[in-house]
Structures are given as C-alpha cells and as structure tokens.
Design brief:
By secondary structure, the protein is an alpha/beta fold. The protein has a single domain (about 1-240), classed as Metallo-dependent phosphatases (Purple Acid Phosphatase, chain A, domain 2, 4-Layer Sandwich). Helix content is about 35%, strand content about 25%. The chain is built from eight helices and eleven strands. It has helices at about 15-30, 55-70, 85-90, 125-130, 135-140, 145-165, 170, 175-185; strands at about 1-5, 35-40, 70-75, 95, 100-105, 110-115, 190-195, 200-205, 210-215, 220-230, 230-240. The protein has a six-stranded mixed sheet. Helix 3 (about 85-90) links the parallel strand 3 and strand 4. Helix 1 (about 15-30) packs parallel to helix 2 (about 55-70). The mean pLDDT is about 95.
Length: about 240
C-alpha cells in the first residue's frame, strides 16, 4: 500500500514550472498509489469554484484519471485555497476533508491537517484565519463579482507576504504546546502537516510517549512529498527543474 502526501504547491499562472512538476508527479510518482492527500495551499489563491486558476484543466484531468484508476484522493483546505468547494473536488474525484482529521495509515493512525491552526503564537494571523474560515464571510465573498474577488485575493496575498516578512521565525512556526494539545486530543502520536515551509521529521515526547511530527515542504526550486509504504515512510525532495 502506497500513500502520498503533498502540500504548499502554490500553483499559479506565473509559475508554469510548478504545474509541469505537479503533472510529472501525477503521471509518474503517484501512478499506482492507493491514496493521495492534498493538504492545502495547492493553489496560491482560489477565489471560488466558478473561477478556477487559469491553466489547471490538464491537471484536473490528470487528478480525475488518477481517481478513476482507484487512487483515493483527499483535499484539505489551506490558508490560500480555503474557498475550494465540492464542485471542484467532485471534478477531480476527491473527498473534501475537515480542517483536521485522523486517518489510519500503514504506519498507524495519524492526525492530518494543513498546519496553520498550530501557529497560535501568531495572534494576528489567528484572528485573520477565524475571519476567512467563517462560512458567512465566505458566502459574502463568493457572492461578489469575479473581478472584485481577484482584486481582494491580490490584496490579501500582498498583505500576508508583507506582514509575514516582519515577524520572527518562531511566530510563524507551530506552537509546541498546541501540537501536544492536538495530538493528545486526537489520541495519536503521529501528525502530518504542511504550511510552515519547514520540511522536517520531528520526534519528541508527549505525555510519556514518543511522538512524530512530519512537516511537508513547499514547492519552489524543490518539490516535496511524503511517501508512506507498508511500515515505512520517507520525506522526499526533488529538483523542480529536473521534472520530466
């Protein structure tokens, strides 16, 4: 049984190399997979299922083909693509996951999430997150004309990049107490997430048990994915430029 996890691709028209690398990943690496988890920020911005990112149709077709071939696809919202809805996930044959969930993998039960909800030291971001995850706010945004939504997405992205650059690294990373809290609440010792762009495998103690936190990497000059196969797992990187 092979299961793959990716996050933080930030696909956008300005980076066709990322789309090519993702296409290569789907047609080569993920072929024959039992499951593929897309853990948020797959798109750099998503303003509604009625206005998909330009140029993604070939990727949509590849994802649907993968799903039709027996690969279970899961999609989880990130902080950039929280407006992805069931219309889009139905098109690619994916199941839309809640913002955190526990799934049984070949290596045991894991708490799966995008990861931004763990960054509780960034109080400014947590307030923003609460606003944009509010269903009433989302419906208000989705009711606006597409050109207004495009302008809003650009504004939010620019503001986010500016504010993040001003913050210390520890502010934008996960809070260790929050990690332990969520693991204990879920009653598991394995967590998989993205968001922070700090790929690593962390082992630590939580309530007398050894726990593992696997952090997926973002796709830029390198791409990242987690492969879980039988009783093993690997966090793997590759050069975007080398993708066939």
């Amino acid at each position: 049984m092979s299961v793959y996890f990716i996050s933080d691709l930030h696909l956008k028209p300005e980076r066709p190399d990322l789309s090519r690398a993702f296409s290569s990943f789907l047609s080569h690496t993920a072929q024959g997979a039992d499951a593929l988890y897309l853990l948020g920020d797959i798109f750099d911005a998503w303003i509604g299922d009625d206005a998909p990112v330009p140029g993604i149709e070939p990727l949509v077709a590849q994802l649907k083909q993968l799903s039709d071939g027996g690969c279970k696809i899961y999609f989880q919202h990130g902080n950039r693509d929280f407006l992805v809805g069931s219309d889009f996930t139905d098109r690619i044959g994916a199941e839309l996951l809640p913002e955190q969930t526990v799934h049984t993998l070949p290596i045991g039960k894991a708490l799966i999430l995008h990861g931004d909800q763990l960054c509780t030291d960034d109080q400014e971001y947590m307030q923003f997150r609460a606003m944009v995850r509010n269903p009433a706010w989302q419906q208000q945004i989705l009711s606006k004309p597409i050109d207004e939504r495009i302008a809003l997405a650009k504004q939010l992205r620019a503001t986010s990049q500016e504010r993040t650059a001003e913050k210390d690294d520890y502010i934008t990373d996960v809070n260790a107490d929050e990690v332990n809290k969520q693991l204990n609440k879920a009653d598991v010792t394995l967590m998989i997430h993205g968001h922070t762009h700090r790929p690593a495998i962390h082992t630590f103690d939580t309530q007398g048990h050894e726990a593992t936190r696997i952090v997926l990497g973002d796709w830029d000059t390198q791409g990242w994915y987690l492969k879980v196969d039988h009783d093993n797992y690997q966090l793997i990187s590759f050069d975007i430029a080398d993708a066939p």
